[in-house]
Each structure stands twice: as structure tokens, then as C-alpha cells.
From TrEMBL:
Species classification: Eukaryota, Fungi, Dikarya, Ascomycota, Pezizomycotina
Protein name: Uncharacterized protein
Superkingdom as given in the UniProt entry: Eukaryota
InterPro entries: SWT21/TCAB1_mRNA_Telomere, WD40/YVTN_repeat-like_dom_sf, WD40_repeat_dom_sf, WD40_rpt
Natural source organism: Penicillium atrosanguineum
Signal peptide per UniProt: none
Record-linked SUPFAM superfamilies: WD40 repeat-like
Region feature Disordered, mapped onto this chain: 14-66
Biased composition (Basic and acidic residues): 29-52
Gene3D superfamilies, sorted: YVTN repeat-like/Quinoprotein amine dehydrogenase (2.130.10.10)
Biased composition annotated in UniProt, kind: Low complexity: 53-66
Length: 442
């Protein structure tokens, strides 16, 4: 059902795109917009991590001026490559966006975002380029723009160590090696989780049949604090014990209620639940392949896991899937229902967001489709079986790869684009911010 009112675009990278210079270069040659910002870094040495609450507390030499965030940098062409994902930083001031040309860009929103009649032009404050594709990223859970030492994020780049980088300066602060002990080759995590429940001192990675826990103070070649296989050891199998799941751990999420339950999903369509924020025992596993939803909306592997605000329900997004699965985690392995009509039958990652919309566990799921439409399902956990979208908005002229809701409750960031050949027509590779004041009046 289409509503009578529409979201208002308040900022976009597409504004004035024709004025940008062509910068269709390979990833290592992406221009670092941070070099044109009033940020100085006197030393490139790794952080000593003296303050566990701030992984970069020793880097007090990083200086930033948030007022410079809206400066226009025409050399950074944002329309050449599509956006793969976008997410808000925990303080709600900044967007972190990943592009198909192996660049992660920082967009600091102007203070007058919701003021004025014309949309603001979004320009990157800083650009961190990589020689190889980025598989996963995660923002420091206590990110605060007023304290540059906290403006950090993790990313895993193929065939390289995991890096901790500044969102304000295109420079790595520290690196963490995850190496296969048999081949000595780097293992590239397909998922990274930097949860606030671990106090900002530890983070988790998911790779092939393995979840690892890292201590941010142990940088370099020391490796993870613990290795936790998601499949039982051969010894346990021989004696008839052990339950697990095999496959690349492609998504992870910690229950927001603080009970320490970690949900992990794989490309082989398994879900595992672990205690103690992923470092404890296996609570149970289940397969999402043979369900009623599979016949209706399909699915070829988990790409994202998100909890409901109340921590009772787990939302599962997959590639090649026309919807989202809803599981009641109080009864492990029981599917409550599924959201259909998303229009996301693609191998591309299409990120969703779950938004608190009221008291008594009321919430919504926001998700984009390959048709450029962002759809909303209200209170999906209150419906058994199939649930069609309640609202929908046309926000892009291409696939909506992410829909990220601001904590204010009335602002949404979306990004778009997809891999195309030369004859597939014009592309919409853009990042937009939308104001939805009507949501506060509901």
C-alpha cells in the first residue's frame, strides 16, 4: 500500500554530480579527501590502547574540525561505482559508506541537515581505499565525533590483516592478523562484530566454520584471543557428541537486551546461538532451508542478522531472497513468519534495518529492493505466516542496497546501485538521506 505522503530528500551525493571530475581509477588510486580536510596526524604508529574504553586513546594528535565536514571535494566522483552499504555511527552524526571500487567513505552530516528548502550535497570527509575488496566492516561502538580518538572502524580486506582505521583520516591505526596455521595464508572474515556489550575492548570475526575473539590491545601478529570452531571436533563426533554448523559465518548479531546471546548465520543457511557474547557454549543450531517461507520467497545464504529491540525475535536476510525470515528465538529453530514482497532476488547484499516504533515491543522492518523502492513492515512479529509490506516509498532509480534508520526516529539513509554491463542502461549510484516527519506524528 502506497501512502499519501512521501519522504523528503534532505541530502544526496547525486546533487551537482555533473560538476565532478572523472575519477574512474582503480581502488589504490582513489583520492583521499582527508588530505584536503583540516586534520593532521603526526604519527602513523599503531595505538598503544592504554584506555580500553577508547582503542585509539593514545592518538591524541588526531585533530578534527566537524565544521569542515560539509566541504565539497569535486575530485571524488561518487557516481562511477555503486554503493554497497551504508550505516550510521552510534552517535548519529556520521555515515560510513562502502563502494564497489574498494573505498570506504565517511560522510559527516551538516548541523542544519533538516533546515532549508533544497537538499544538501553530500561529500566525503575522508576516503579509505583498498587494493582488494572489503568483505566486512564494523564501527567502534562508542564512536563520538567530538572525540576524534573514538572515530574508528574495523574492516576486513581480502588477503590482508584486519585493520582498525580512523574515520577522519584515511590511515590505519592498527592491524590484526588472522592466519591459517596450516597454510600461513591470511583468513579474511566475512563478518565482523564490534558490540558495545564487550566494552569496546574486543571484537568478533566470522570466517569458514570459525568465530574468533580479538582483543584490540593485541595488534600485529598475535592473533585472536580465542578460536571457536562452529563444527564439533572429530573427537567429539567419534564419541557421538557435538552439534554445530559448517560453512562461512557470514553474519553475526548480539542480542540487545544484554543477555549475551550471539546469533551467527552461514552461507549454508544455518543459524547458531552462542552464550557469553560468542565466547561461551553453543546453545543450539537450526537450518532455515526447509520451511514454508523457502517455497515462497527463496533464499541462498544468510547475509544479515538483526534482533528485534525486545530481543525476542531474530530477523534473517538472505541473498536471492524476496523477503525476510522471522524467528522466535525463545523457541530455538521455530519460524514465526516471514516478510514477503521485498523484491531482492539478487546475489548482492541488501541490508535491512529493524526500528523501534513504540511501547510493548512494537517495531518495524525497513528494507530496499532492486526496483528502487524502500518497503516497511509494521509489527512483523505479531503476524504468523506471510506478511506483506505496509508502506513503500520510491527512493532511488536503482537497487537500494541499504536502508539505515537514524536513532532520532525520523531520518533514514539509503544507498543504491548494482554491478552493470555497458548495455544495461543508466545507473543510479547515490547515497541519500531522507526526512520523514510524518513518522513522529503517528
Amino acid at each position: 500500500m502506497t501512502m499519501d505522503w512521501s519522504p523528503i530528500c534532505v541530502a544526496s551525493t547525486a546533487i551537482g554530480a555533473s560538476e565532478e571530475l572523472d575519477n574512474d581509477a582503480t581502488s589504490p588510486e582513489c583520492r583521499d579527501t582527508g588530505s584536503r580536510s583540516p586534520i593532521a596526524r603526526e604519527s602513523d604508529s599503531p595505538s598503544s590502547h592504554e584506555d580500553p574504553a577508547s582503542p585509539s586513546s593514545s592518538n591524541s594528535d588526531i585533530q578534527a574540525s566537524p565544521a569542515a565536514a560539509v566541504a565539497i571535494h569535486p575530485e571524488d566522483n561518487l557516481t562511477t561505482h555503486h554503493f554497497k552499504s551504508v550505516e550510521w555511527t552510534p552517535d548519529g552524526t556520521t555515515l560510513l559508506a562502502e563502494s564497489a571500487n574498494h573505498c570506504i567513505r565517511t560522510f559527516i552530516l551538516p548541523p542544519d541537515l533538516l533546515e532549508g528548502e533544497k537538499p544538501h550535497r553530500l561529500s566525503p570527509y575522508s576516503t579509505l581505499a583498498s587494493a582488494e575488496p572489503t568483505y566486512a566492516s564494523a564501527v567502534y561502538p562508542f564512536f563520538n565525533l567530538q572525540d576524534p580518538t573514538t572515530c574508528l572502524f574495523l574492516s576486513s580486506v581480502r588477503d590482508h590483516p584486519i585493520r582498525l582505521a580512523s574515520a577522519l583520516v584515511p590511515t590505519s591505526v592498527a592491524s590484526y592478523a588472522l592466519v591459517n596455521p596450516m597454510t600461513e595464508a591470511f583468513i579474511t572474515p566475512h563478518s565482523i562484530l564490534y558490540p558495545s556489550t564487550l566494552g569496546g575492548t574486543h571484537f568478533l570475526t566470522g570466517s569458514d566454520s570459525m568465530i574468533c575473539l580479538f582483543d584490540v590491545s593485541r595488534s600485529g601478529n598475535e592473533g585472536p584471543v580465542s578460536w571457536m570452531p562452529t563444527i564439533p571436533s572429530k573427537r567429539k563426533q567419534i564419541v557421538g557428541g557435538g552439534v554445530g554448523m559448517k560453512g562461512i559465518v557470514s553474519a553475526m548479531a548480539v542480542n540487545p537486551t544484554g543477555d549475551g546471546i550471539l546469533a551467527a548465520g552461514t552461507f549454508t543457511r544455518h543459524i547458531g546461538l552462542y552464550s557469553s557474547n560468542g565466547s561461551g557454549e553453543l546453545l543450539g543450531t537450526f537450518n532455515i532451508a526447509k520451511t514454508e517461507a523457502n517455497r515462497d520467497i527463496g533464499g541462498k545464504g544468510v547475509t544479515q542478522l538483526t534482533w528485534s529491540p525486545c530481543g525476542r525475535y531474530l530477523y534473517i536476510a538472505e541473498r536471492k531472497c524476496d523477503g525476510v525470515l522471522v524467528y522466535d528465538i525463545r523457541v530455538t529453530g521455530q519460524m514465526l513468519g516471514y516478510l514477503r514482497g521485498r523484491n531482492a532476488l539478487t546475489n548482492q547484499r541488501m541490508n535491512i534495518d529493524v526500528v523501534n516504533s513504540g511501547a510493548e515491543g512494537s517495531h518495524e522492518v525497513w528494507a530496499g529492493g532492486i526496483d528502487g523502492i524502500m518497503r516497511v513492515w509494521k509489527d512483523p512479529a505479531f503476524t504468523v505466516g506471510a506478511h506483506d509490506p505496509d508502506w513503500e516509498f520510491k527512493v532511488h532509480d536503482d537497487a537500494v542496497t541499504s536502508a539505515a534508520f537514524h536513532s532520532s526516529g525520523s531520518v533514514v539513509a539509503t544507498c543504491s546501485g548494482q554491478r552493470r554491463d555497458e548495455n544495461s542502461g543508466p545507473a543510479d549510484n547515490s547515497l541519500k538521506v531522507w526526512s520523514m516527519p510524518f513518522l513522529n506524528s503517528e
